[in-house]
Write a structure and sequence with these properties.
By secondary structure, this protein is an alpha/beta fold. It contains six helices and nine strands, in the order H-E-E-E-E-H-E-H-E-E-H-E-H-H-E. Helix 3 links the parallel strand 5 and strand 6. About 9% of the residues have low confidence.
C-alpha cells in the first residue's frame, strides 16, 4: 500500500473501510464478539475481493489485486488452525474474486487446506472469470453455494465475513437469512 500512497497527489481521494466490530479469538474454542464470550465449534468464513482502489493505482497494481476481504479472515484462520487446544473445531472458507489471479494468499490457503485434509478446514473458491481448467465454482456467491460450502447455522457456529459492502449487504446477509441464520446473533462483519 505504501507504494500506492506515495503516488497520490493533493486532491486525490482514497476510499477506506474498517476495522469494524470487535472480534477476538481467545483460543481453546472461545471467541469474544461484541464483548460476549462464546464457545465456538464451527466457523464459516466468507471473503471477497475489492476493486475500490482500481482507479487510484492502475499503473502500480493489477486491477482487483488489493483484496481487503482476506486480511482479517486469514488472521482468524491462522489463529484457529494454530491453536493446539482446539481439536473438534471446523472452518469453512468461501472466497470470491473476479479471476484466479486475484486470489491473494493462495499458496498459504492451499497449504492450510492440504495440512487439514481431515475436514478441519474446507476451502472453496469462486471466480467470475474462470480459467479453462477450473475445479471450483464460477460466478457470484449464491444461496446454494453458501448452503453447500459453509456450515449450517447453530448455537456454536459463527459466520465471519469481509469484503465490499455490496457483497455483504446484497448477498451475504440476505442469503444467510434465507438459509436460516440469525445474522444479528451469528454474523461478524469486519
Amino acid at each position: 500500500m505504501s507504494v500506492g500512497f506515495s503516488e497520490l497527489v493533493v486532491g486525490d481521494t482514497v476510499e477506506m473501510k474498517g476495522p469494524l466490530g470487535s472480534f477476538t479469538w481467545e483460543g481453546r474454542g472461545v471467541a469474544v464478539w461484541k464483548g460476549v464470550r462464546r464457545k465456538v465449534k464451527n466457523i464459516g468464513l466468507i471473503c471477497g475481493g475489492s476493486g475500490s482502489f482500481d482507479l487510484l493505482l492502475p499503473t502500480i497494481l493489477t486491477p482487483n489485486l488489493i483484496h481487503a476481504g482476506i486480511t482479517p479472515i486469514i488472521q482468524v484462520l491462522r489463529a484457529v488452525l494454530g491453536d493446539s487446544g482446539v481439536i473438534e473445531m471446523r472452518l469453512w472458507l468461501l472466497d470470491t474474486n473476479k479471476t484466479e489471479q486475484d486470489i491473494l494468499c493462495r499458496d498459504e490457503l492451499d497449504t492450510l487446506s492440504e495440512m487439514n485434509r481431515d475436514g478441519r478446514f474446507v476451502l472453496h473458491h469462486t471466480v467470475s472469470k474462470p480459467p479453462q481448467s477450473w475445479s471450483f465454482s464460477t460466478g457470484r456467491i449464491s444461496d446454494e453455494m453458501m448452503a453447500i460450502h459453509l456450515p449450517p447455522p447453530g448455537d456454536e457456529t459463527l459466520m465471519l465475513t469481509c469484503g465490499p459492502d455490496a457483497l455483504i449487504k446484497l448477498t451475504v446477509k440476505p442469503g444467510l437469512e434465507r438459509l436460516g441464520w440469525n445474522v444479528a446473533k451469528s454474523l461478524v462483519v469486519f
